[in-house]
Structures are given as C-alpha cells and as structure tokens.
Amino acid sequence: MRLTAFTDYTLRTLMYLGTHRDKLVTIQDIADLHNISKNHLMKVVHQLAIDGVVDTVRGRHGGLRLNKEPGEINIGQVVRQTETDFYMAECFEEHSSQCLFTAACTLKSVLSEATDAYLKVLDQVSLEQLIANPHAKQDKQDKSVPIALHRQAKAST
Questions:
Q1: Per residue in 110-156, pLDDT tens?
Q2: How far apart are CA 48 and CA 68, in angstroms?
Q3: N or C: which end of the chain has fewer CB within 10 A?
C-alpha cells in the first residue's frame, strides 16, 4: 500500500505546523524545507482549511497554523480524508473488473481486512505522537525541527 503524494504532503505539513506552534508558517517555508511544489502545497493547505484542521491568515504577514491541538488530530482520519480510494486490486472496482476469479475469489476480502487493519493502526496515532520525540537530536539548520524530519526531507530530494 502506498500513500498518494497529496497525503504525504498533508502529513508533512501537519508535522511542520505541529513543531512550529509559536508562529505563523508560510507555504513557502514548508515547500523549501521539503523541496516540494508550492502549488501542490497550496492545494493541501486549502483542503486542510476546509476540513478545519488549519487556520489561514491572509495578508502581508499572514501564514497558517494548526486550528486544533496536535493531540486532537487523528492520523487515520487525515489519511481517510486525503486518500481518494483504497482499491488494492482490480476486483475492488466492481464495474470494470475483468478478473475471471472475481465470483469465487476471497482475495478481495483478505485485502479489505488488511486495509482495515492498516487504518486501525493509524487511528491509534495522533499528530502529537508523530512529532513528540524527546530523544531526537536537533539539526543545526533549524533547532525547532527534529533532525529526523530534516533527514527525511533531504532523502526525498
């Protein structure tokens, strides 16, 4: 199973906002850190604002910030809101499935059960848990973001 780029960027945005609670953050800040498209992030932030997770402030000194406490943001719910579907195989699309085994196959139910288990694990995690790591050393570039986040961002470039 693989998350879409939209979900990946959503989670990165939330993690960044969660570690920068003391100030307004710009989309450009996040785009620069992760070396990702500002245009894609604008779509992510727009959806997060519609969902009520992020508060946006317009204007010259504007930016964005979390609209909820990190402990109130459930990762399973975020993934469900950002993923378009969880179809793992052709048989999940009833109208276009051309698999000869569909009528007697149990693969679909097994994959559905696996997806449910995956989401159940994510349902047990909050944003607060993702960003809380008291043992992480701080990167010299940005003392407010754990070094692991910087390494992730650098590895994806």
A1: 888 988 999 999 999 999 999 987 555 444 444 444 444 444 444 44
A2: 11
A3: C
What is the number of domains present in the chain? 1
The CATH number of the domain holding residue 67 is 1.10.10.10
Please give the mean pLDDT across all residues of the chain. 82
Query: How does DSSP classify residue 126?
Result: B
Please report the beta strands in the chain, taking only residues with DSSP state E, as ranges in sequence order: 54-57, 63-66
Domain that holds residue 19: 5-155
Phi-psi region of 37 (alpha: psi -120 to 50; beta: other; left: phi over 0): beta
Q: Is 3 left (phi over 0), alpha (psi -120 to 50) or beta?
A: beta
Q: What one-character DSSP code corresponds to residue 84?
A: S
Q: Which of 14, 21, 3 shows the shortest CA–CA distance to 49?
A: 14
